[in-house]
């Protein structure tokens, strides 16, 4: 038998993205909504399901959903592109604006897919690391843009996993400083309630990403969308997979979007619960909490990987271990869950820290002394 011819040599340095997570009674690791779709929506879906045309291909451009999103944002349908989750749209953006010989400006630590997709598309990554408190090094970014060789800038706003928004004035400075495509990733917009949408008229290079996976409880179906100048959408339609958003997802997402006011109180509850988590963590000695505008909270704790294991194996609570990721030494990220789940997480944290301190596994370090790593 002949040896298999190797794939692209630059895949050598890549490891497959493994999103598989251990099972846990309480999963606070993926920034999902702890609540399923509201009953009103599920009942309506159930009533209409027998008529659903499973045998037909989907509308390649998700026409109905696209129009609903455009109307809600005061735009034309040509300014909207629906994708198989925000993830697909990020990939499409790099297929069109990245590629060999082209450069993406990134501000780590940030959403890991930016870097992964840059590698897969052969796009050169230009990284301007955030400061120790995770604010963007604005002067360094603006200085780097002056060379005029950057093709795309990606900013997560609020930033996953650190939770903070960027200054609006900085984002406007970026838009003014470059003709590169500027992606403002608003995956957590419904929790931050801040959007760059008003700046789209003046800045044709501004692209906004949103998702149904977080506030709208639809992570299972994979639906996200972009708002952009129609020329940007036209370019993206050249590289995208025509049937990537299936018919069922389009149908459910359109219904969810029409009914989106019913999510309002749930979103407000999650924002309140985020404050409960921030406050609760803040009370624990040895924990540094980073302020968040999203539905998750990043915190730093000594021996984070061990604390993560204690949370999972001793208390059945799964959070995201980021402690080995660059710039995130000793950091864990907890997603906002239901009030009961959040209380269980906070109780578990307290018990773990008390036990570790008693057994001499933790120093008597308090928040202040950890500030050298990252501030609060
Ligand atoms: N952007 C950011 C910043 C995210 O955190 C996520 C989800 N983790 C996405 C985009 C993509 O979300 P989805 O593919 O579920 O729409």
What is the compact description of this entry?
The protein folds into 2 domains: 21-33 and 264-359, Aspartate Aminotransferase, domain 1 (Alpha-Beta Complex), CATH 3.90.1150; 49-258, 3-Layer(aba) Sandwich (Aspartate Aminotransferase, domain 2), CATH 3.40.640. The chain has 13 helices and 13 strands.
Short descriptors:
alpha/beta, Aspartate Aminotransferase, domain 2, seven-stranded mixed sheet, 13 helices, 13 strands, 39% helix, 14% strand, globular, disordered C terminus, binds 4'-deoxy-4'-aminopyridoxal-5'-phosphate
Structure description:
The protein is 39% helix and 14% strand. The protein has 13 helices and 13 strands. The protein has helices at 39-48, 63-72, 85-97, 112-120, 138-145, 168-177, 189-192, 230-239, 247-258, 264-282, 304-315, 339-358, 367-374; strands at 26-27, 80-83, 103-106, 124-127, 152-156, 181-185, 206-211, 224-227, 287-289, 296-301, 317-318, 320-321, 331-335. The strands form three sheets. It has a seven-stranded mixed beta sheet, sandwiched between helices. Strands 9-10-13-12 form a four-stranded antiparallel beta sheet. It has a two-stranded parallel sheet with strand order 1-11. Helix 7 (189-192) links the parallel strand 6 (181-185) and strand 7 (206-211). Helix 2 (63-72) runs parallel beside helix 9, helix 3 crosses helix 4 and helix 10 packs parallel to helix 12 (339-358). The longest helix is centred in the C-terminal third of the chain and has 20 residues, at 339-358. The termini are far apart. Residues 31, 85-87, 111, 156, 160, 185, 187, 211, 213, 219, 224 line the site of 4'-deoxy-4'-aminopyridoxal-5'-phosphate (PMP).
């Amino acid at each position: 038998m002949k040896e298999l011819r190797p794939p692209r040599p630059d895949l050598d340095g890549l490891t497959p993205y493994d999103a598989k997570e251990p099972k846990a009674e309480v999963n606070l690791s993926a920034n999902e909504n702890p609540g399923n779709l509201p009953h009103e929506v599920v009942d309506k879906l159930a009533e209409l399901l027998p008529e659903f045309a499973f045998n037909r291909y989907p509308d390649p451009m998700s026409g109905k959903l696209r129009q609903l999103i455009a109307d809600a944002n005061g735009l034309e349908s040509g300014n909207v592109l629906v994708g198989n989750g925000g993830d697909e749209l990020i990939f499409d953006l790099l297929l069109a604006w990245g590629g060999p010989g082209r450069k993406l400006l990134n501000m780590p630590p940030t959403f890991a897919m930016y870097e992964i997709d840059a590698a897969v598309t052969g796009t050169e990554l230009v990284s301007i690391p955030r400061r120790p408190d995770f604010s963007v090094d604005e002067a360094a970014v603006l200085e780097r843009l002056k060379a005029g060789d950057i093709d795309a800038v990606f900013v997560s706003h609020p930033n996953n996993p650190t939770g903070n928004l960027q200054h609006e004035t900085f984002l406007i400075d970026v838009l003014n400083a470059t003709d590169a495509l500027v992606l403002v990733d608003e995956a957590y917009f419904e929790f931050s309630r801040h959007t760059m949408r008003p700046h789209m008229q003046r800045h044709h290079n501004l692209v906004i990403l949103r998702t149904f996976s977080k506030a709208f409880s639809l992570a299972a179906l994979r639906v996200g969308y972009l708002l952009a100048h129609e020329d940007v959408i036209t370019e993206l339609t050249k590289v995208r997979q025509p049937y990537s958003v299936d018919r069922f997802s389009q149908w459910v997402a359109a219904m969810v979007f029409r009914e989106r006011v019913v999510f309002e109180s749930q979103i407000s509850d999650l924002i309140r619960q985020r404050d409960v988590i921030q406050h609760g963590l803040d009370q624990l000695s040895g924990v540094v909490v980073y302020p968040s505008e999203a539905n998750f909270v990043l915190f730093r704790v000594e021996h984070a990987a061990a604390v993560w294991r204690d949370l999972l194996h001793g208390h059945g609570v799964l959070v995201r271990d980021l402690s080995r990721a660059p710039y995130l030494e000793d950091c864990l990220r907890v997603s906002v869950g239901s009030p009961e789940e959040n209380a269980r997480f906070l109780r578990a944290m307290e018990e773990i820290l008390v036990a570790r301190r008693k057994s001499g596994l933790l120093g008597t370090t308090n928040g202040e002394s950890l500030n050298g790593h990252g501030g609060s």
